[in-house]
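Quick one - first record:
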Amino acid sequence: MTEPAAEAQATADEEKIFIEPRWPIALTIVTFLAISITLRIIEPQRESLGPDWLVPSIEVAMLIALLFADPAHISARSTWLRRVAIVLILLLVGTAMLATGILVTDLIKGGKVTQSATALLASGAVIWLGNCLVFSLLYWELDSGGPLARYRHERPYPDFAFTQQQNPELAPPDWRPRYVDYLVLGLTTNTAFSPTDVLPLAAWAKLAMVIQSVISLLVVGLVIARAVNVFA
């Protein structure tokens, strides 16, 4: 093996060691899949986003794409798989927005789900949690070009500014955000309806956080208000 080839192989082996594992992302997608199935079970009469199999199929396809797109192996195959994963995540973001729209419409028109406080709260809870999980995947996949680009420091400026990046003395020199950091970002955005300890720097990141905050605000505000009326 020539010296350049040996160096390339060593670099690839090193990246395979240090690139973050995929099981947390897989667990998140499986959780979201369970949420979709749960939503259909607790609301069998609820208007669906197309055929019943549509959203679960997107989630399964995204799980396969994320698991097979090895970020430590740069090739045409992994490149197009990552693009497919991004498209699938965007589709799930769209389904989260549509699910919120359907729930709001049911609240306004007085659909069957609004007649039961338990079903209403359960429906709002799974949509709220799904919103959190979907946007955490979006942030993880797009921030600074993705996990491999973050590892290689390919971009001089990040799309999100984490505390450890703003105060390097609080973290090891090689620190970079992992998926769990984006999961916390999605959760805090869902609960605070605004940035907390992570600041969006890129335009797409600001707009994504706005959309997530609006979805969460609509679900929490309208669902709780309606549920209180039903209990009363």
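second record:
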Amino acid sequence: MYNKAKTQFIFIPKKITGNITIPNSVTSIPSSAFSGCISLTSVTIHDGVTSIGDYAFNGCTSLTGVTIGSGVTSIGDYAFYSCTSLTGITIPNSVTSIGQQAFRGCTSLVSVTIGNGVTSIGQGAFMGFTSLTSVTFQGTITSTGFDNNAFYTLGDLRSKFYATDAENGTPGTYTTTAPVNNTSVWTKQD
């Protein structure tokens, strides 16, 4: 249930089903807000939201689509952890930080686009993928902001990103073939 006066969500976990839209009047999605909502299938987050809290959508195993509005600046730790039906995600340019293990265990994820505003990606943020075959970096990320284990278990993706610019990385689309594992070889597309 949405409480407009307090711009927060109050609900009984696991009871939300189908599609939801988070309106512009909401400024943040609190920690664990939708955690365990196993029947939630899609989420649209409007531009008024600035942050997605830790564990916000953790374990939403039926979630296939997420649209993140251009007001979001941070995605918390474990925010989409184990959303096993999620197939693609676009991180908008407004996002500056992606928390640790934010998308870990999203085993159906095929493509990821990381906007040009991202300056930090936490440990294991994109860990445990087996279907991922395309990652697009729209901007650069300093090597100190890109945790060594952000793409742990995805082969040489991080090293390929920094292959021609060891400090900032090279924007572009990187692809590989599934199933993805720690020996996967990624190729930058021209």
